Amino acid sequence: MRIGVGLLLGVILVILIGLTGLYLYSRHDSLAASQVYITTDKQQYRAEETAHISIRNIGDHSIDIFCPAWCALGNFPTTVEKFAYGQWQYFAGFCPSIEPLFGNYVYKDDYVRHELSAGSSFELEISNFDVLHLEPNERLRIVYYLGAQKKPIYSNEFTVQR
Which class is 35-161 in CATH? Predict the structure, then answer.
């Protein structure tokens, strides 16, 4: 009887430790997401203009940003979503170059992981909106993924005029 009670208490303790770890891990990703900002330099562009994108980590710890691994080396895979039929959905992928990352890719599953140090930022440019054949005033945003759980983080919305 004592062995059964001890075993049961041991199992409960392991479960509690696991749940506590899971809670702290998910809270860390949520806190990190609140300290990363993706912004564009404008809210409205003409199709031939260049959009300047800034990814900033205002926190005091480095973070991992995950991007789908469909760009060539030296580029920063960037996903653009559009708002259509009442919801956000994948629209296009861009591969802007970012010099400090060239050849410094770490792959995990189908994603490229980039580390963004505390207090630093990545600056990117997208300049080929004219090939997308956008509808007038179509709402767009940029999305990247944060942390091991790949929590999506989004830029401000913007439009591209034809």
Answer: mainly beta
Which residue carries 């979503």 as its tokens?
Answer: 81
Residue that wins the pLDDT comparison between 96 and 126: 126
Three-state DSSP class for residue 115: strand
Rounded Cα gap, residues 66 and 150, in angstroms: 7
Q: What dihedral do alpha carbons 30, 35, 36, 37 form, nearest 10°?
A: 120
Q: Where are the domains of the chain?
A: 35-161
CA 78, CA 123: separation in Å to the nearest integer?
A: 12
Report pLDDT digits (tens) over 118-132.
Answer: 999 888 888 878 888
- DSSP notation for 34-56: TTEEEEES-SEEETTSPEEEEEE
**How many angstroms separate the CA atoms of 25 and 12, rounded?**
20
Question: Tokens 């696991």 correspond to what residue?
Answer: 18
Distance between terminal CA atoms of the chain? 77
Chain mean position to CA 117: 15
